[in-house]
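Hey, I'm writing a tutorial for new members on how sequence and structure tokens pair up, and I'd like a real worked example in the thread rather than a made-up one. If someone can provide the structure for the chain below, I'll link this post from the tutorial.
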Amino acid sequence: MKIKAYITLFVVALLMAACSNIDEDERLIYVKPAPVERCVLVEDFTGQRCVNCPTASLELEKLIEQYGEDAIIAVSIHSGPLGFHTNPRFYGLSTDVGDTLYTHWGFDFQPVGLIDRGSPAEFTSWGTLIREELQKTAPVEIDLGVAYDDSLQLSINTQVKSVDGNIQGKLQVWVVEDSVTAFQMMPDGTRNDTYTHRHVFRATVNGLWGDDITVQEGYAIDKEYTFPIDVEWKIENLSVIAFVYNESGVLQVTKAKLQNADSVEE
């Protein structure tokens, strides 16, 4: 029995010695995360008094149909001189945030768009710019979960993971409502009081420019937000959009529909 015990201890000692000869930095091999397909953010700066804006909106819908709703994430930002704020007679879709963004980017015409926060572009060039962006990969991956409860409170969970390099930028979270009925001036100069507005920007969840974030490659950060739902918004048409951007433009964007938190718990 003692001989067997000595042999066992000898084998264990050899194995431990063999392991100790491996340098610490050679024991773990870093595996770079897999590339992430890019989604494209289209910010359509539009206005209810803009006769050319319905044409731009139609072109945008054609591009979404061509590439898919997951590939192109659109936001119609009602703003500027041709935007319209609600008054006692008409329902307006412009917001103070939209007007601030319009002024910040120095626009002087509508419709005008930003494709992944590139240079201002007329809608006739959106297709080419979107195609170029879709050919790139995204350096970050965004996971987004959104729920609401009976008190009309949004709970938003975001996770940003860097898959290509260390990332410094900002995380922006917006609320968007689809299929909003409100007046719109049409290309023939008439007013359509039952026009359906798509992808309407409603509010920013985390300020005008979002939150500063820094993420090392292979790591992730989590951000949680709560936000009240306006009683005028239709819950079934609401979505939350989250995107990461820096001085080079939008790095990645994603979109999530709302889930009823009480139903999920049941």
